[in-house]
Design goal:
Elements: H1 3-22, H2 41-51, H3 53-56, H4 91-100, H5 102-108, H6 126-138, H7 142-160
Amino acid sequence: MNRKLVISGIVLAALAVAIGFFVRPGGGGSNVTGSFPPPDIAMGEALYAQSCAVCHGKNLEGQPNWQSAGPDGKLPAPPHDASGHTWHHDDGVLFSYTKLGGRQLLADQGMDFNSGMPAFGDQLSDQEIRNIIGFIKSTWPERQRQEQAERTRFALEQEGN
């Protein structure tokens, strides 16, 4: 097996574990859950097309070789469809990663990671971010939606402790 691919896979897995353990819903000053209006899926789809599709693909397919860092050390944009890892993260992680950007979110957790994910908190309102996440989730098969919802419930339970 290609050594670079194995190393990239290990780095990606470690990053996913770190995000899951250290980032909690509501990081970055807001929360994706709580007493907010439900996401507007149609608005989320339009906002995704405007703000996300340029990197993550108009069909949520991500960039080629998204699991291997490029020459700049950054991982390409992952897919948001069922073939990617987006559904492995709870709502709070997805919200915070979008609002703060990958580099800042992980820096806030004491990790130095050269993320290509920019911050959208100054371009999109919290509700617009929730709309985009709602749209992305609406495209997943039932199994992925259920798994992701369970991860969100678990993260919220941990926050309550």
